[in-house]
Amino acid sequence: MSTEAERADWQDDDLLxxxxxxxxxxxxxxxxxxxxxxxxxxxxxxxxxVRDCRPVIGYLxxxxxxxxEEWTYNKALPMTDRMDYLAPMSNNLGYVLAVEKLLGMxxxxxxxxxxxxxxEMTRIQSHLVWLGTHALDLGAMTVFLYCFREREAIIxxxxxxxxxxxxxxxxxxxxxxxEPYPEFYEDCRKFLDDFPSKVDDYxxxxxxxxxxxxxxxxxxxxxxxxxIGLGVTGPLLRACGVDYDIRKKEPYLVYDEMDFNVPLGxxxxxxxxxxxxxxxxxxxxxxxxxxxxxxxxxxxMADDPKVVPPPKEQLAHDMEALIHHFKIFTEGYHVPExxxxxxxxxxxxxxxxxxxxxxxxxxxxxxxxxPSFSNLFSMAEMVKGxxxxxxxxxxxxxxxxxxxxxx
Amino acid sequence: MVDETGESPIADESVxxxxxxxxxxxxxxxxxxxxxxxxxxxxxxxxxxxIEIAPASLVAAANFLRDSRGFDMLSxxxxxxxxxxxxxxxxxxxxxxxxLDRAKRIRLEVPCEDDLAPSLxxxxxxxxxxxxxxxxxxxxxxxxxxxNDNLERILTPDGxxxxxxxxxxxxxxxxxxxxxxxTPEGKPEATE
Lengths: 407, 192
What we know:
The complex is a heterodimer of chains A (407) and B (192).
Chain A: H1 4-11, H2 13-16, E1 24-28, E2 40-46, E3 49-56, H3 64-70, H4 73-80, H5 88-103, H6 109-137, H7 141-162, E4 171-172, E5 175-176, H8 184-206, H9 210-216, H10 224-229, H11 235-239, H12 246-249, H13 270-294, H14 319-330, E6 338-346, E7 349-357, E8 365-369, H15 371-376, H16 379-383, H17 389-398, H18 402-406
Antiparallel strand pairs in A: 1-2, 2-3, 4-5, 6-7, 7-8
Helix pairs in contact in A: 3-4, 4-5, 5-6, 6-7, 6-13, 6-17, 7-8, 8-13
Chain B: H1 9-19, H2 21-24, H3 26-35, E1 39-45, E2 48-53, H4 58-67, E3 73-81, E4 91-99, E5 104-111, E6 119-121, H5 130-141, E7 144-146
Parallel strand pairs in B: 2-5, 6-7
Antiparallel strand pairs in B: 1-2, 3-4, 4-5
Helix pairs in contact in B: 3-4
């Protein structure tokens, strides 16, 4: 029991003065576990209410686009998966499609199928990282462990097919770097057959979880109109109910032959983004199964000896192959003059490569339209007027990769 | 100059110009009707439409394309240093627009008139997403966007000098920090 004197010590207005009401500016990051990389956010707070949010980026800027100008088209390729390191195959794909468009090159159907299969596997593993870390931000530890278990299975397949776990650089201009290993399709099918039950597990943990729902429903809302103005793309835009998926609307590879739905949200809150991405996990699996069922026979690489390196066996006895091999790996290949922009649907949204060629073997200019860049700058709209604690939830729902924002 | 058929090549050119597929595009026609001479050039390359616009007409074109033609999303904008390209102006900015309903993309290309101090009007009032993209172009190429109140360097470190995406930015060398500290023998320390 406190005495009268002790009680008065903290209740005396003269000692404390009037309540301070000015806005406080708070730095969140760059070393903050929930900023998913090295991001700083300057928050204007009024008590616990967020009045403004300004993302500060550039901590991972490594001049990738400038580097690409100095190298040949083939040498620039490995830079691409270092931007969005959670979706390496999608980044490779955007780049090779842009260069192939500049070259006016046709890709064999088997290669297109293989690319679709691997990019959908990439989408699954990228969404798994998002789900795990997002749930972890909101205090759900188990989901993180489950997600990384399944992600590891995909990464193992990537390692066997490309030789590298994360920085795959597997897609090449004119095809892929090598024939997939013999049990590749079997491994993929085994993983995909088990996968729906795993998604059920995640959903059981989160979808009806009152804590998760309480943290996400009606939080971080952005309207469709605002989202379009801010250049938001991908699952974020679809959670607002805007039906725009580049795979459907501007099909590349063989997506126009695939049967899949585009999951849409209604309210544009964090919970809808969660539902959209969970549905996308199942749709991606559906596409991958269709690819496995319909995998055609035929060549894997485009028939263009000036661009596609010859098979290694030929080098020992074929003079012409040796010359082509030498030219591709020293001088590179000349790409006709012109400008193209190729957009693909990466796990995070519209990933585009704007490449200008001056006819030389290296790109004159490469600009990467990174989905996370535009998506991140919609943060202010999402958290203004909300609670400070919801900033973490909103940031997790955007699914940013700082590597592609800073490039 | 008269060729074999007796027609002058100038007449030929005008006929060919009318038949150019890029000129038949309804958006290009509408934009020409709105801006007149503000549309400098129309190119179609690999099925992608690029329209060159005079800097003075940029904001009018942006408003018109968004409000009347449905290009409600600015996908990105990119500054380009054309120093080594055969064009008259050194800097240009490319705006990639997307119409979500028609799934149609066009590119606006706007040359900057002053090669030494490139600047363009900001389109952040038309598409809010332009604001951070303009900061990026300003940071990497030094193109100033007038009307963007928060134009600042966002990618390069604090105190960085120069514009790294310019073609004449020197990337071949880096100043070496000499210490000139004395060794016990009294000679300056060898730098390796």
